[in-house]
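Quick start: read one record
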Amino acid sequence: MFLLEKLDGVLTDLGFNPYTAGSMTTRNLFCLTVALMVGTAGLPHVVIRFFTVPRVKDARLSAGWALLFIAILYTTAPAVAAFARYNMIATIHETPYAQAPDWFKNWENTKLVGWVDKNQNGKI
C-alpha cells in the first residue's frame, strides 16, 4: 500500500477528510505558492541582503537561491504536517488515557491538544 493511500485510510477511518482530496486546482495551488514565495522574498530582512553584495549578478544569484529555498519551505510544510498528524494518530490511537505518553500530557497542559472522553471508554 502506498503511503498516501495509508494516510487517506487512517484519516477517513477517524472521520477526517482524505489528505489527497484537494479542493484547489493545480493552477490555483501554483499561483498560491508563487505568491507566498514572492511575498516572503519581498520581506525587508530578505530584500536588504541584495544590497550587501558588490555586483548586480551576485544579487540576482542570491535572489534565485532565496526563492529556491523559500519554494522548498512552502512545498514541504504540508507534507511535514500530514506526517506529523499521521504519526500522532498512529502513536496514540486506542491508547488508554492513563497510559498516554508524557508528551501528550505536556501538550494538554499547554493547551496544544485537548482530550474529551465523549464515549466514556477511557481511550484516546
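DSSP finds five helices and no strands in the chain.
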